[in-house]
Amino acid sequence: MTYWSSTTEITNDLIPHCQDxxxxxxxxPARARRLDELAKSVSFLEAFVRGYERIDDPxxxxxxxxxxxxxxxxxxxxxxxxxxxxxxxxKASAASLRNxxxxxxxxxxxxxxxxTEPGVKSYNRFxxxxxxxxxxxxxxxxxxTFISTRPSVKSFDGLHSTEIVEYAYKHFKYLCAYxxxxxxxxxxxxxTAINTTGVSPAFDDRFFDRGCELTAKTIAVIAILWQVxxxxxxxxxxxxxxxxxDYVKLFPxxxxxxxxxxx
Length: 263
Prior knowledge:
263 residues
């Protein structure tokens, strides 16, 4: 006996359904431009974070190994998220955003460890063991506690009455609902296919807009974290002077401009 459902109809002819959803999404020039702008923001993010490599401070190891082997995963996850968003897979798109935020924060964690506890003959043990598969990616309990104690972070939080790492963690927890397939996120948003579009892929203006907003926020959270921890990055002018409009996309309100001005 063959079981049939609306999902079965899609999976039996998956590629044409995906192509149809992609065509539907980008048939609106405004939506196509929005996706293109998000993709360019990912490029700006990578260029910005790699400004770390040009920091002129003997106390900071600006070797690019950790960025190459950890942070470089984040742009790949963002590319996946944007493609899935364009194709009508909204839940999977948000799950890829979770991956991007997770590895970008892990990369920052490893980079801080390299500056505070460098290895004798190699990189710090936290990164070295992770890099060879002997250590799991650090969880947020470990990363949040450690990153929050950095002097630059404590200074930023004290000056602006914020908890910037907690802010990033709350966004991560929201994205976790898409990965763990909870019916609803912690703010009440429906996140599964069955209580949003019903099946995937499917186009829906509401969830397309939500996906775009989540992508932009995830990009911003990563940029803000790196800048707050290493405020010297912006002085290397990775995107040019801070008056450049490209910074506005990476550092939106409410915390972005504060992070850019942090010293």
